[in-house]
Task: structure prediction
Amino acid sequence: MKLTILLSVIILLACNVSEEKSAPKKTDALDNTPKTTVTKQQSAAPPAKTYSNKRFRDVMVERIGKDSFLIHGQGQIFEASFSWIVEDGHNELKKGFQMTDAGAPEWGKFEFAIRVQKEREHSTLMLVLFESSPKDGSRQYELPIMLY
Result:
């Protein structure tokens, strides 16, 4: 008796599986709208652009507000100190300096935020990271980055 019940269950399950594979799916004749699926690639934001040169690498800028930006990356900087300036092609709007968490020859990480407003509506802001020469203070290894 148990054997008969077991065989019946196995046969029923086998019939259901083959029916699902061979039977066409029923669709509503009125539903003619095309089906779109969102893949991970479509929904993901484009990869952030990174900037690099001989002294800076993997530098990325994220807009965190209307006039605010977060800058992070790595630098191989003498005594771990570097400078930055924001200009609009005509004027220097803001400047400062930052530190990496390690000095050269190591690649130290850095992260800082700046807030800067355009003086002219249609101007383009440019952030320039650079190392100051220990000899004469001149800019070395400039890395220009366009701020949007």
Q: What stands out?
A: The chain has two helices and seven strands. The longest strand covers residues 139-147.
